[in-house]
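fyi for ur records
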Amino acid sequence: MPYLIDGHNLIPKIAGFHLGEIDDEMQLVKLLVEYNRLSRKQVEVFFDNSPAGQPRLRTFGNVVARFVRSGETADQAISQKISRLGREARNWTVVSSDRQVQSMARSAHAQVISAEAFAEQVKQTLATELPNDKTMTISSDAEDIDGWLNLFGVEHTDKE
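which gave:
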């Protein structure tokens, strides 16, 4: 089920993320791209107060970031998106802790998850990722080497 996310509502719910940082939106987008890679869930995230001259829509694979222009809110943009989806809204999940947004989403029969619960879901999904150091440690113990050579039918004659 794809997600519609109120970005500025989610940012403060994620450990280490803070509203007001210069790149808080892009930090969240990068996190959502990684979440998408692991979960295969489509994500559309909405941000308030788009700076002038910035593209209003940016796509990062299956993550779409919508930067809402001044004078409109992410809440309104999410509501408009839900309205455009019509009956398909029931196939989407809205991520927000804002009660008005939750109420609007429920009235359109969309699923709702709080920003706190979604942040925990993202954390758990990312925790399943393998460590960055994916290299194997190979023992140089002579017995191990002889064992591997025997396994592959290679005769090892260099014994000390």
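The first strand starts at residue 3 and ends at 6. thats all i got for now
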